Amino acid sequence: MKKMILAVSVLLAVVFPIDLKIGVWDPSEKSPFFIDEKDGPDPYKNYRSNYKRITGFEYSGLHWNQGVVVYINKHVDAYWENYKLYIEQLEEEDRSRKFNFKKYPVGTILVKENFNLGKGTQKVPISPQTATVMVKREVGYDKEGNDWEYVRFNTKGKVLLDGNSKDPAVKRSCYDCHRNVESRDYVFSTFYKNPTKAE
Fold first, then answer.
1. Distance, CA of 68 to CA of 195 (rounded, Å)
2. Cβ–Cβ contacts within 10 Å for residue 45, how many?
3. Residue 70 and residue 63 in contact, taking contact as beta carbons nearer than 8 Å
4. Which of 195, 196, 176, 194 is nearest to 186 (CA)?
5. How distant is the alpha carbon of residue 142 from its chain centre?
6. Cα–Cα dist 182/162, whole Å
7. Are 190 and 160 in contact (CB under 8 A)?
């Protein structure tokens, strides 16, 4: 029964750890995305080396069938603890059990790189598309959305989207999906190959 629940939940998650070939956009190399300075000293500068990579290079049906890689600036322990609790939740047969997921502190930043993929079984990235960012703001910034700001940049650093759940475009493109994981503080956990250590 547990295996069946886990299998169905994996399908519903819509984010799969397919072995994607990174191509010329290797996460260990310089980022192909220019993310503009926003709050004083650039918080996104050299994020590939200064942040912690917390996912594999994965196919995401939730993000326009693109390949994604996610980084976090700090509080990686909250992400991994929530990941482990999420897996326990999937396998738990007692539906009444409560899980105490962690909340991300103010100042937490997640950067997600989005790539167009080639056709066929080998999902080779064809081109970088956008970088999307979640920033945990001060208490009161957006009570309904637990104070998360959502920002989307193109590869040249142009801001395509910026706001919170009160903004209709952000609500439609970001918040309406992320609120499905409100219990995990609006942050999805993905099926990374090594759940105890990011690359």
1. 17
2. 10
3. no
4. 176
5. 19
6. 20
7. no
Q: What angle do CA 16, 20, 25 make, to 5 degrees?
A: 125
Give 166's strand partners.
none
For 139-148, how does the pLDDT look when each residue is reduced to its tens digit (9 = 90+)?
Answer: 999 999 999 9
- Full set of structural domains in the chain with CATH: 2-184 (3.50.70)
Rounding to the nearest 10 degrees, give the CA dihedral for residues 178, 36, 130, 80. Answer: -40
- The predicted-structure confidence for 146-195, as pLDDT tens digits, reads as follows 999 999 999 888 889 999 999 999 999 999 999 999 999 999 876 555 44
Closest-CA residue to 106 (of 147, 144, 68):
147
pTM equals 0.77
Cα 61 to Cα 187: distance, rounded to the nearest angstrom: 16
Give the tokens for residue 146. 């637990």
């519903």: which residue's tokens?
12
**φ, ψ for residue 11, nearest 5 deg:** -65, -40
